[in-house]
Task: inverse folding
């Protein structure tokens, strides 16, 4: 299914990719060390560095500064958007070849960010709600963030305990369905981390309900077994 779609993109824009935005998205990684870009991309590099400086001054991070750079780049090169993304992709792969460790460090950070609540990052509402919202908004934001982090912690730690065969996970059987869910979530997280840096809800919203449902199911199973084991037996005739 994915290969035919990538082939369709290749016939349409000349790139064997799932999304024509690949070059755009990967720039969120490479903009941190874009100075390594070869000289033939000097004009694009200069625009990215200028916008990165502005972002660092106003937001203290570099996420999505490529968005503010796109209009200047299109005007400078006279490209269509798809052509510019192709050019950015070629530039990104050149930068990654020169600075693979910096890229992998950025990928690791992005992978960790994937498991935070969807709207926890700087781009969306929870952080701003907690810092500047009213009492009700702050309460809702904090409850959501706490609940999500609790579910994510359960989701990520239970397989480890299950592999170690601890008594804490003896209350449920590992199934092929669970294996598929974990594989899907981890594959999504890893793919997102390699392609794009920073929080991006597009990749998470499809798997986040699975994480929460599995975590709640595990907690309910654990609570049921725990309370049934600790329930005192009733006396005969009572």
Result:
């Amino acid at each position: 299914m994915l290969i035919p779609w990538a082939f369709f993109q290749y016939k349409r824009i000349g790139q064997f990719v799932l999304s024509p935005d690949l070059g755009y998205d990967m720039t969120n990684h490479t903009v941190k060390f874009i100075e390594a870009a070869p000289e033939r991309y000097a004009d694009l590099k200069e625009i990215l560095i200028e916008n990165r400086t502005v972002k660092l001054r106003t937001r203290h991070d570099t996420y999505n500064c490529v968005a503010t750079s796109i209009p200047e780049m299109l005007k400078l090169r006279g490209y269509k958007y798809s052509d510019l993304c192709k050019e950015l992709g070629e530039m990104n792969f050149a930068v990654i070849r020169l600075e693979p460790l910096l890229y992998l460090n950025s990928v690791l950070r992005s992978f960790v960010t994937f498991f935070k609540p969807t709207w926890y990052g700087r781009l969306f509402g929870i952080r701003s709600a907690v810092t500047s919202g009213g009492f009700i908004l702050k309460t809702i934001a904090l409850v959501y963030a706490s609940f999500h982090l609790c579910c994510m912690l359960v989701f990520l730690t239970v397989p480890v305990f299950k592999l170690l065969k601890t008594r804490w996970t003896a209350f449920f059987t590992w199934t092929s369905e669970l294996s598929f869910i974990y594989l899907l979530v981890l594959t999504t997280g890893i793919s997102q981390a390699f392609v794009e840096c920073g929080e991006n809800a597009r990749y998470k919203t499809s798997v986040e309900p699975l994480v929460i449902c599995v975590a709640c199911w595990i907690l309910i199973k654990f609570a049921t077994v725990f309370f049934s084991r600790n329930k005192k037996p009733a006396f005969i005739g009572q």
The two ends are 63 Å apart (CA to CA).
